[in-house]
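ligand=heme C
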Amino acid sequence: MKIPLILLAFISVMLFADDGYKVYKRHCSSCHMVALPYHEPDRTAAKKKMKAPTMRMVAMRLKTMINIQNEDEDIQQKVMKAFIKEYIVEPDEDYAICMQQMIERFGIMPPMEGLTHDEKEAVAQWLWEQY
Ligand code: HEC
């Protein structure tokens, strides 16, 4: 059977998006929530349990702080993903872009070990999409 190329491209994009979320679930979700619940009292309860900024906060912060001249979104995405892929294996206070209050409250993130190149790429892509 011949599968149209466009369908294959679509399927691979879907798989890829899914992979990023899976990597997040497996390696990041023990500390990072995706986002805070919108309604009270869940919101306050979740805030108390936080061990790290939410992934939405992180994505928002990075997108606001990494402010490059090039308006091409593809380039912006590459730069932000490069930072994420490097930071998760080598977190460092001097390198962090995250808000200082977050670092004071939660400490510096421990390095994530054993992630493959593809897993890092997938989770960075997924994180880019969170804001
Ligand atoms: C053991 C807890 C823990 C796990 C697991 C964890 N993180 Fe973090 N992460 C933190 C904390 C705490 C911070 C805030 C302090 C900092 O920036 O280092 C943080 C910050 C970050 C930042 C912002 C960096 C900055 O300061 O600019 C990114 C990006 C990030 N995490 C991505 C991830 C991804 C992706 C994963 C999974 C592959 C992950 N983290 C897993 C605790 C964790």
